[in-house]
Amino acid sequence: MKYKILGEIAIALMRARWKQTFVAAIGVSFSIAMFIALLGFMTGLNTLLDGIMLNRTPHIRIYNDINPSAVQPLQRIAEYKDSYLFLHSIQSNANRGEIYNAGPILETLHKDPRVKGTASKIIAAAIYQSGNISMTGLINGIEALEESKYFSFVDYIRTGNPEDLDIVSNSLFLGSGLASRLGVEVGENIQVTTASGDQLPLKVIGIIHTGISDLDKTQGYASLKTVQKLLGKSNLYITDIQIKLWNMNLAPELAKAYAQLFETNAEDIQTANAQFETGSFVRSLISYAVGITLLIVAGFGIYNILNMMIYEKMDTIAILKATGFSGKDVKQIFIGIALTIGIVGGILGLISGYLISLLIDQIPFETAALPTVKTYPIDYNPIFYIIGISFAIITTYLAGYFPSRKASKIDPVIIIRGK
Amino acid sequence: MSNIALKASHIDKYFHDPYKVQALRDIEIEVLKGEFVSITGKSGCGKSTLLYIVSTMDTDYTGELWIDNSCMTGKSEPELAKVRNEKIGFVFQFHYLLNEFSVLKNVMLPGMKLHPENKLEIESRAVELLKLLKIEHLALKRANLISGGEKQRVAIARALINNPIIIMGDEPTGNLDKKNSDIVLEIFHQLSEELNKTLLIVTHDLNFARQTHRNIYMEDGRIIDNPF
Predict the structure, then answer these.
(1) Domain harbouring B48, CATH code
(2) pTM, 2 dp
């Protein structure tokens, strides 16, 4: 009941100067809208840039490095145990690219709750031939579905359908650079020769454009089966297991654990792309700095507007206090006004920030590097909206609290005599 | 039950800005219930300063203040606000109505502060008071749309809403023309005689002062013998 009368006074004060109240709320809205739109835009761009690299890079890659055995046969002989052995020109076994026990490894990985998904892969050197032209490069045997699901394979397809890799036998996707050098188009056949001399004609059913020209000039993508056939290997043969985790930050730790568990090599994304990490970190640092700056500027704006409003109402405060309203009542009235402005302005800000984001999202952004991106990217992360509204409410609360606390403490006569 | 409405003893007051000046020196006053007392004096003699102290709106003084037999000196701000709400009705020189509200609402606000649950009762009492002061036709008008004399009558109605122990006025006719001054003066007499209210009014209008029960004359921050 007590709050009802205070609320009534607050509403009357706001209605009497509704234009000023409205301008104050708009001031809050503008700040919050700008914060949301700019941060959404910057984060969107960052995510896009990060994505060029991150989406296609596995968090952990399990492979079998071509290395000579750490323990050579000579060292196993008991008689030489205490001797010092000199071994020169140690060579590795050439067939070591294969991951042993790939089946059980995959099974273990799929049971691990931290693993989001895996995609098996074969990477092999290949010579692509079309007519007189031959280009050296790599052929990737991939699981098209998993590759699309976890590593955005589908995002980089310029023409073609990834599912066709499994449907059309002896088919492949060519990197855009490679295809143009070979002078082939979709539907034509090329010869692919492996390092060991095996040859197979493959049909080009699509073009890949990753935006990284070194990749596009050298890579071809076929199904696991096709590559196994090309290499003359069994259908268990794979050279890489790519793992996507739920939480990327666990990668270094898990990579170590997997390397030990499966007795193979495992590389995490942080180690593989150290320089990229730095760039990404700096970019997000910049966007946080911009975000915080925006909020601080907005905060001062909001504070000023409300401060002015309250100082204009000093007369009203004196009258209220003279007729028996306590400092606490006065404080509650003005905090009520401030919070109303904060909440209404904040919600308007969220809505207009969202609308501005939608608008930016419509602006064309054509880039050769990213065939699937047609407009500027926006991050609609709800956390921005939560920060925005909380910030609006907290700053308006403080902006209402401090001046009204000051006003509530002084004797009414000070205000009256000051006239 | 004592019949002293207000008592102030040994009141001293200094102004500190821009330099220390003593505004009130050892003031002693006592107002009995039902009395109609006026305070007169030249400009700057401290009469308004005294009124603000005894109305609890100024707490920066030394001495003791009693209202309705309870000591005000040293009370906390919310307690004083409650006293102003319940026991004191104040009429300012410049009416001081809230322009954001209607006349009726202005009169009702102190009442609703005291008894938030009795809105209807307060409303009927406010209408009665407006009738008493012959301004009931203005009840729903915005406070800034009525004339100066009418505003002052609204302010008096507001001062009366909680049936206070004492009504104080700081030159309530100071800003009004002759006709409106007479109306306000008439109202104060009516309050004093018909409703037996206690009034303490600061004025520079000697004609006004002569018609009260008792006059306190001030000079240089002191109460001196009445020159009349």
Answers:
(1) 3.40.50.300
(2) 0.70
